[in-house]
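Sanity check

After download, print the first record. It should look like this:
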Amino acid sequence: MTSIENLDKAFESRVRLGIMSVLTGAGQSDFNTLKTMLGVSDGNLASHIRALEELGYIETRKQFIGRKPNTSYFVTDAGQKAFSAHIDALTSLLGIKSE
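Expected structure tokens:
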């Protein structure tokens, strides 16, 4: 049995949990796609992205596609480890056996 203390506080926010879920599943995503998928405002998304960046869980790539700037995000190795540990702790608390 796992203790609730094994959950990562960084993922208590549904938006941060959503960001990490999308990025883990897709490999990377741009700002507008994340905003649409999560149904949040620009400012709300930006603040949660910044918090995850400060923890070293995600990184930003800025590039131009044609003449338009494009910002995309991806999960770092540290972010992947932290998110996996968080999901493992959740499944353990729920009594779900991993294969």
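If your output differs, re-run the checksum step. Summary of this record's structure: The helical segments are 14-26, 31-38, 42-54, 77-94.
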